[in-house]
Design brief:
This protein is of the alpha/beta class. It has one domain: P-loop containing nucleotide triphosphate hydrolases (Rossmann fold). Helices cover 31% and strands 20% of the residues. Strands 1-3-4-2-5-6-7 form a seven-stranded mixed beta sheet, with helices on both faces. Helix 4 links the parallel strand 6 and strand 7. The longest helix is centred in the middle third of the chain and has 17 residues. The protein binds guanosine-5'-triphosphate (GTP) and magnesium ion (MG).
Amino acid sequence: MNIKSAVFVKSSTKPSNYPEDLLTEVAFAGRSNVGKSSLINVLVQRKALVRTSSTPGRTQLLNFFRINDNFSLVDLPGYGFAKVPLAVKKQWGPMIRTYLETRANLRAVVVLFDIRRVPRDEDLQLLDWLEEFEIPTIPVITKVDKVSKNRRKGQISPILEATGLPLEAFSLFSALSREGRDDIWERVETALGLGAEDATEQA
Ligand SMILES: Nc1nc2c(ncn2[C@@H]2O[C@H](COP(=O)(O)OP(=O)(O)OP(=O)(O)O)[C@@H](O)[C@H]2O)c(=O)[nH]1
Ligand SMILES: [Mg+2]
């Protein structure tokens, strides 16, 4: 994917303030601190298009980005961070569910799992909603640089067990080494329905 432009469009909480343009869209979801914003930055090759943070739970809105004036990437709010006020926590489920249910131009959701963590209720709830609304899912195991190559399989097996998905369903990714970037782009492009002319290879 050749990135000619990547711009922040707006932050939203509800359908009435989602961007009105109906470019096709792919969203990124997962627990707080899993690396959603880092993945988007690596995909679009911008160091800080999306704010990343060592303080989990900072992104509490849906953030829309327009890429190449051609499609949108959406950074969804993370869930499951203990220090977030209860009132904010309670909004997350409905905010994400409503987005998934109503966003007609949404083509797929990239769901991130931390290689070091066992998926929790919210992760499984998200997968259930994606199935309910028949939204294609691109599962990604991230932060793979945190685990040595020969320990990867063992670390991943609780994720396979909890999600019921086979290993082949997952792309493995690291924002540090950028391993997995091309594989994830390929899946995102397919979901967006981009032809070869839109997705010119970068040298
Ligand atoms: N080692 C390593 N660290 C990563 C990777 N991806 C993200 N991080 C770090 O993990 C922390 C959280 O990353 P973010 O991208 O901000 O996570 P997020 O999912 O957007 O978090 P919220 O916006 O709070 O929901 C940051 O300190 C990142 O530098 C990775 O692949 N490897
Ligand atoms: Mg974030």
